[in-house]
Amino acid sequence: MKAVAITGASSGIGEALARECARRGASVALLARRADRLEALAGELRQQYPDQRFSTRSLDVTERTALAPALEAVRAELGDLDTVMANAGLTAVNRTGAGDPARDEQVTAVNLLGGMATVDAAARIFRERGGGRILGVSSIAAFLGIPGSAAYSASKAGFTRYLHTVGMELGKHNIHITTAHPGFIKTELAPGMEKYPFVISADKGARIMVQALLRGKKDVTVPAWPWALVRRVAPLVPDALVMRAFR
Ligand SMILES: NC(=O)c1ccc[n+]([C@@H]2O[C@H](COP(=O)([O-])OP(=O)(O)OC[C@H]3O[C@@H](n4cnc5c(N)ncnc54)[C@H](OP(=O)(O)O)[C@@H]3O)[C@@H](O)[C@H]2O)c1
Does ligand 1 come within 6 angstroms of the Cβ of 18? Predict the structure, then answer.
């Protein structure tokens, strides 16, 4: 892992992934919409790791045709590109029937279609260079829907299925995909994240994800306890219990 591009690097898990990759000696391209935050992080990392390269690029993943040229530009800036992390995402509470389908569309456009466009652009480069690694950040919500965030849950279920499927396709091109399923991680994703059960820091989550990627794991639940078990028993959990947990 020498040259990494990360979407959603302006906060939370993406920022922590950037720090973890830098700590491990990689040059890193930071991508998101908030350029000021990317620049501040890049400046800090340049000071800490003067022998590595850190670039920033303002990018909205819903502009899907921008993904391929952006990753090509990153490849030129860093001198190579061997790892891409499709992490950008957002959530939104939208009680079904509230009459706001645009909100659900935005969640789907970022989490599912934006994630797919990121992976597609990465695969194009990696096929040409003879291999590479992709980390896709999905969610435990792929297996256990969150009432009030149905579009989020659906977008993550779709992204997980997409990542598992393209992982099969791309293996023969020496392109490895790791799909990460975080439980609760303390970030800006939603207010009050720190109050959720079994919440961990973004730094810890990023460490687990990068380790899994480097070990060639296809899938990782973050952290394993209790989410690996929750994931397994999810189809058996009564709806009333889920409703109570997210009330
Ligand atoms: N935190 C959790 O408990 C948790 C659990 C499961 C899964 N996840 C997943 O982890 C990923 C990172 O989320 P987080 O928790 O770190 O939340 P966060 O702190 O809110 O970070 C989200 C990142 O996504 C970027 N982003 C949002 N919309 C974008 C767009 N249209 N184009 C480009 N970038 C965009 C944001 O940057 P800009 O606003 O600057 O563009 C930001 O850097 C998401 O996919 C989320 O679904 C998080």
Answer: no
